[in-house]
Amino acid sequence: MRDIVTNEAQTEVTDVISRPGPEPAEPPKLSAPLPDTGSAVTLAGVGVAFGSHQVVRDVTLNLARNRVTALVGPSGCGKTTLLRAINRLHDDAGGAVSGTVHIGDLDVYARDTQPELVRSRVGMVFQRPNPFPNLSIFENVVSGLRFNGVRSKSILREAAESALHHSALWELVKDRLHSPAGVLSGGQQQRLCIARALAVEPEVLLMDEPCSALDPIATAKIEELIARLAVDVTVCLVTHNMFQARRVSDYTAVFLLGDDRRTGELVEYGQTDYVFEVPMDLRTKAYVTGQMG
Question: Which of 19, 180, 190, 236 has the fewest CB atoms within 10 Å, measured from its CB?
Fold first, then answer.
């Protein structure tokens, strides 16, 4: 692990077992109690390996329905790998996934579960905006529906309008739906990608650092959008921005680098305010306060 901890902080991190963190009135746990909304995604003992390289280790985590969960931690600790495992994006990349992932009652890795079924229930937004450059704004939004066999013009039109409303783009693009997606700014293209994911009406929206390539104004718009989307959709967000995690998430899961036997482990999971203000693990405290990275 690339260690940039101060001597004092290093002593605290090393001594974490014998010196537990401060205990809040309602302490978060590695499997934090969920609100009445229940669990949209359940991961039990999930691991991801590429050949002999284990990237994620034995992660048990519930994503609360209609809430925003942030996955935080330094580069290389397994956040994005875990996110992609929920959507079966390792199938063609040589990744071996162990443990179980359930979306509601759907066993994501059951022998008879088709990846297309999983991806109809889980949308994905990537780090950089990736609209299809040769398609219009409208065709970008409805591309997933067309892939799933929807041909009705009225259904496609209604779905596109609804998705663009939800992504706060409709008023900007309603008069140029057949223009190329490239006419949009970077932040608008990212919202277009969100609209594309929403058009198939997913239960869960996975977002892998969706603001990392955006300026502060565009980032603020995406964050406002995330808060609105969580009313209808469960959101799981990977971010390196601790301020963003605090602003937009209800729950935070912390992953940290360790030696080869520890990298990819879930260190702490709980309500965001507790994780940042009164963490149970001193490694979490060192990371969220910038003492280690």
Answer: 19
Predicted TM-score (pTM) of the model is 0.84
Question: What are the mean pLDDT values of the chain's consecutive 10-residue runs (293 residues total)?
Answer: 41 41 42 65 95 92 94 93 95 90 95 92 92 94 91 95 94 95 93 94 95 90 92 95 94 84 86 91 87 63
Cα 71 from chain centroid? Answer: 7
Task: Dump the DSSP string for 37-75.
Answer: T-EEEEEEEEEEEETTEEEEEEEEEEEETTSEEEEE--T
Q: Is 95 helix (H, G, I), strand (E, B) or coil?
A: strand
Whether the CA torsion 14, 19, 20, 22 is positive or negative: it is negative
In the block, which residue shows the tokens 């995604």?
Answer: 41
Residue 232 DSSP code: T
Q: Can you state the percent helix, strand and coil of the chain, rounding each to 5?
A: 35, 25, 40
Distances (CA, A) of 166 to 72, 132, 136, 209, 212: 26, 20, 19, 20, 21
Residue 79's CB is within 10 A of a number of other CB atoms, namely 26
* Distance of alpha carbon 107 from alpha carbon 109, whole angstroms: 6
C-alpha 223/C-alpha 248 separation (Å) is: 6
Query: Please, are residues 187 and 177 in contact by the beta-carbon 8 Å criterion?
Result: no
In angstroms, the first-to-last Cα distance of the chain is: 9
Torsion angle of the four alpha carbons 74, 75, 77, 79, in this order, in degrees rounded to the nearest 10: 100
Domains of the chain: 38-277 (3.40.50.300)
